[in-house]
């Protein structure tokens, strides 16, 4: 379990996060949802260890990670722009991090991930030859082969459209289920959060507005901000919400 206690952060004396408490169970997909500037990316970076918090505690499986460096936490992130190496082909990108591991995965384990994300036909391609969805799958595979304790995703669907977006969404769900991999996602899109996550943390101006399941957030919003933010933005996506949560919210 990942546990955050009273996590706070300021930049230039301006509060970005205030007293964030959060518990994420093993294998859960949790979205950090909020508007631009709400503090969600800062919170993701604090969990990763990229950003130092001003106060609070972070625990993983009862281990205090508050002062543990990023490289020693065992968490891995897939960035919004994928951060792939253009001079390497898809396969070389996937195995890039393994050369620094003390114990490399066997070839069978490596190809299990490659097959799972259906990248076999694309391994020799240059990054410039890959579609957006293929690049996302390469980035996911490169992270999975490192066997992270927690998978962090920064706006994983923002550069994708239509069928490709839905495909990646289903793959993220499958990864979390098959590998029992706790997954934390930053998104500004309520529809993505509601259709992808087991639970959603809604952040508004550095505070937790609500933490709950998609059903709870739709049917039992904690306050007017949650209700307005979720339902108004979903108004143009009526069909998806009808199937998920019933006619009165479509």
TrEMBL record:
| Pfam families named in the record | ABC_tran
Q: Residue limits of the ABC transporter domain?
A: 2-230
UniProt subunit comment:
The complex is composed of two ATP-binding proteins (OpuCA), two transmembrane proteins (OpuCB and OpuCD) and a solute-binding protein (OpuCC).
- Superkingdom field: Bacteria
A GO term, aspect molecular function? ATP hydrolysis activity
Q: Which organism is it from?
A: Cytobacillus kochii
PANTHER family per the UniProt record, alphabetical: SPERMIDINE/PUTRESCINE IMPORT ATP-BINDING PROTEIN POTA, SPERMIDINE_PUTRESCINE IMPORT ATP-BINDING PROTEIN POTA
Q: Which reaction does it catalyse?
A: a quaternary ammonium(out) + ATP + H2O = a quaternary ammonium(in) + ADP + phosphate + H(+)
This enzyme's EC code(s): 7.6.2.9
Membrane-spanning segments: none
Q: Which InterPro entries match?
A: AAA+_ATPase (IPR003593), ABC_SmlMolc_Importer (IPR050093), ABC_transporter-like_ATP-bd (IPR003439), P-loop_NTPase (IPR027417)
Protein name (record): Carnitine transport ATP-binding protein OpuCA
Mind listing the UniProt keywords for this protein, alphabetically?
Answer: ATP-binding, Nucleotide-binding, Transport
